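Step 1: inspect the first sequence and its tokens.
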Amino acid sequence: MEVLNDAYFNTKCQGSSTTCILTLMCDIVHTVNLGDSGFVAIRDRVIVYKSKIPQKGFDYPFQLGNGVKFDDSSAIQEINVTVRTWDVIVMFTDGLFDNVYYTELEKLVRDGLVDLCELGIFWRNCSCGRFIFEEQ
């Protein structure tokens, strides 16, 4: 939240943006989210968490900006979600779910993980919150 507040209060240029910033600390995903950006958590090939996408109206998301018609940092959502080893987090910006259904995303992630396994690439949990790729 501090990063977004600093960016908001120190930006002089006109413009606006939606945002999703995510940090992983052991088994907690902490996010700050504004507008039609967000994330999903996938466990055992199924979406177990979808961040909410608040909007003022249809196709009218909250946006952080310094103009009169934009929102300030008070509109930002802070979310904590518990995750497990092997969960997959997919972050997105506006437009993904205008074009891809949640079930399609589950299939894309599942197929992508199968492809990695077929290539002999696996994740090894090195320490809390850190993963590396290694060839087997």
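Step 2: inspect the second sequence and its tokens, then contrast the two.
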Amino acid sequence: MEDPYPVLDILWSSAMAAVHRDDYEQVRELLDPGRCQVIERGFGWRGVDVAWALAERSRYADRLRRELEAYDFVLSPTTPVTAFAAGADHPGSIDGYPTTYLNWTPFTYPFNLTGQPAISVPAGFTRAGLPVGLQIVGRWRDDLGVLRAAHAFERLRPWRHVRPPIVSEGGTSR
């Protein structure tokens, strides 16, 4: 299946622009600079762009539903990177490829876009002590199945009382 990022970009940024349609100039200085970039990108889309993106989202969701019907669940990492610097909007690059405000989450955004039931659960820590998440995706409208799978995983790998070491900049433990 094709990457739905162009569709998500239009819908996400135009939705953020819609939230601030009437107050952006008044609140701009209070907002995170990365959010401002997304809002300003959203103000640039035309109605025909948004209409196209809405239709594409429906087509993509239909294809994704059909593809996933053969599986009880699809498992993936939640993100392709571990935590990055606090205050950063995205990691900057992954394996040498530049990232944007959304494309650094390629495992989650297809399901956020389509409404496919998905959940992220703690799966452990890297050697440097950074958290790693497991995403569990279910069939269309099987939200309960996804919640049950997440619960089963958490029972097998309890994490509530696990505390990682404090990690300093550069990924070293203290």
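Step 3: confirm your contrast with the notes below.
Helices lie at 5-19, 24-27, 33-43, 47-68, 109-114, 143-156. The chain has a mean pLDDT of 92.
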